Amino acid sequence: MEIWVNPACSKCRSALSTLDEAGVEYTVRRYLDDPPTAAELGEVLDRLGLEPWDVARTGEPVAAELGIGSWPKDPAHRDRWIAVMVEHPALIQRPIITADDGTTVVARTPEAVRSVLP
Predict the structure, then answer these.
(1) Member of which family (predicted)?
(2) N or C: which end of the chain has fewer CB within 10 A?
């Protein structure tokens, strides 16, 4: 199991606590320090069944600077969204957990975290 976290994020810390309480083994990826590649982010989005704009943190200051709130949200612009999220990983919603079986969730609630526990 892998979890993408920002250590400063309370939702991330809560998810880590839930994993610890469950006694499961996991790998932490501090995605701000070790951003995903475009291919990795694309795979995670496919597993989530979501598009990049669905997990974009549009409230981040860099989102406003880039004006992504006005970007088209369609298949023709998917790669543009992914590229900017890779370049500016703070735009990626967190935490994201990928379980050993490939199940992936945006783990912002305890229920979402528990949904990927074995």
Answers:
(1) Belongs to the ArsC family.
(2) C
